[in-house]
Fold each of these.
Amino acid sequence: MTRQESTGAHSIATELPRRLGGRGAFWAAAFVLALALWSSGAPSVLYPIYAEQWDLTPVVVTTVFATYQLALIVVLPLFGNLSDQFGRRRIMITGIALIGASALVIAFAPHVAYLYAGRVLQGAGAGLAMGAATASMIENNTSRGPRFASTMATVATSTGLTIALLLSGLFAEYLPLPLLWSYIVLLALAGASITTLLLTPEDRPSVRTRWRPQAPFVPSGIRIGFVIATLSVALAYSVGAIFLSLGAHMIDQFTHTDNTAIVGTLLATSSAFIGITGLFLARISPRTLIWAGAGLTLVSLALMAAASAFQSLPLFLAWCVIGGIAYALAFTGGLGLITRLAPEHHRGATLSFLYLIAYTLQAATAIGVGALATTTSLGAAVKVAAIALTLLSATVAALLLADRSTTAHTEPASS
């Protein structure tokens, strides 16, 4: 071997450990999804503290929560196809950088305007990162199971949310500066995520066209399936909106506790069951999951309304468990269905459009419930939300019944 060849081989050998392969890219994208949901849920345990400190009404709290979704609604139609043009990795890095910036803004917020600004940054970052991360997981899925990517996306998002809720409650209860530490951890993890993404392979398409904002669209031939998948994800998100924006207030109403560690643990129960359930869904067909998700969501809505009406902590805990399982079924089923339907060259844009609609309905749910809770009562608002989401569940079921042909496009032939 010549000296030049030896030097080249040494260069390759030293470079390889610095780069991650497809498997590493898959888990790096899962980490991105976890952080996106971490940023969404980090303030949930702290909302009562903000409300007491700054004298905020329920509608202000829920609009702070929904600002995240509203930012997504703006970002996704304009930039949802960026990762199709410039690669998943670059767009995920940009999104995580915005989430890291949001952590700084919220950590040192002197009044509620900074919460709105931080939530805008979080929503914009998640809007860029989530579609790209989901597409990256699909494309770097090294498992033989085609549904592994959508299942792991569910587990990743629930893990990020669970840890955020638990740590926020523990930090606020047992550390000084209760509104600071959860965001400092988020900032550190954002830095770790960007570092990991930089080590993954470049995935910018070899054939590039000039980028331009792309109006939301659904590729022809998959539209009914897209609607079913999107409404299934939206159903999960809308129930989650009530839970994350007003769940801490409901616990306070039932127990009159100001122990944020207890509040965080109760809220984390639901997201933990999302992840636990998600581990067992990889082999179940998307349509079956959507059916089960819609049905079990009806049960969870009944428990939610009963918990509010009777101010019962056991019923609230039951809602957390059943609602978490229902969320996992509906979200994984919807994501699994669109994974099978979306063509690769439009996958980022299609996933972003799905998230756009789902987050629009989530924002509308949060703001609507907050407005009703402010003008009437929290109990009345929860009852109205339960009725509205029952209708959405029925719509999903009706669409599944009306479109039996979707089975032919989504189910593999039995072996």
Note: The CA atoms of residues 71 and 124 lie 5 Å apart.
Amino acid sequence: MLLLGTCLLYCARVTMPICVVAMSARFDWDKKQSGLVLSSFFWGYCLTQIVGGHLSDRIGGEKVLLLSAFAWGSITALTPLVIYLGSAHLVLMTLSRFLMGLLQGVFFPALASLFSQKVRESDRAFTYSTVGTGSQVGTLLMGGAGSVLLEWYGWESVFYFSGLLTLLWVYCMSKYLLNEQEIIIPLEDFASSLSLSKQSKLPWKQLFKKAPVWAVIVAQLCAASTFFTLLSWLPTFFKETFPDSKGWVFNVVPWLVAIPASLLSGFLSDQFINQGYKTITTRKIMQVVGSGVSSIFALCIGHSSSFCRAIVFASACIGLQGFNHSGIAVNVQDLAPSCAGLLFGVANTGGALLGVICVYLAGHLIESTGSWTSVFHLVATVNILGLCTFLIFGKAQRVDTDTAYTDL
């Protein structure tokens, strides 16, 4: 069900990119206005990562997941109705996407918190990798179904389809998988959980002085930002470098490869731990593949002279990045299960912000050098920086159970 929830998260997320051309024609938006709507999601997405993670650590990740999914599903389903109610279409759509970003920003930190409290260490990698493949499945599902709905019934149907499916998922989760105590959130508990009070049993200053904590944060933000850069620029690279190529090939094949690669990484990681390998050794092996080997293929993309080779290299690069799910993504849960959601939120916020910088810098490099190789050099450099930091300072022992910590 969490895999399906992640899938629906991405279905809702990509509704706007799928419909933006049709909506621009309908409401007479230019490229700048379309870009404003598209980018508004990420500004909201950055703002709730840390709050969502902390809230999940305090009241439970499953409650945060359900609450946020109900809200973003409702907004998605109601978007066409709201847009037609007012005349300020651009403002309303921008606000809608900003709110979508705010609500979806809590999802992955809530998952990290939930897994740290509910899943054994030896099973976390495969569990997280499996649920994480929902991002690729959702992108592919909405890319196919959304395109058909858009052509047959108009852009409104894409929002209705995604929003109503999310609300159905929330209903099934609350009806069949969770009891009443796991759903109800007392208002006083909710309010108290939103703040990092002085009475908190966890001394945050000491926690953020730990080198392994910063190692996983740096590695996570480097990996997230390079993934964001590839996601943003690969379609343009293929379109400009190989103008006769089929768009569905480079928009679909790499993400199809990423699904089994992510599952394989989780399976191998848990197998290594069950066979006696140290947890940190396993995490670092996964990260060498996810950041190191994938960077080699990223460099190869820029030097490809044929479309087939470029597709192979891009698929390998995107696919191997799925090994990050079994490396740094679960290492946060190794280090601090009591506040894994908050730490993951800090890293993901940094990754989103650095991603915006890297995407802009990549465009600047293309303009100034006239070569795509500089973009892939940037991706490899940032990836290797994060990998080296994690290899040198990364650990898997808990850092929230020192004698300085009480009553966790």
Note: Residues 196-200, 402-408 have pLDDT under 50 and may be disordered.
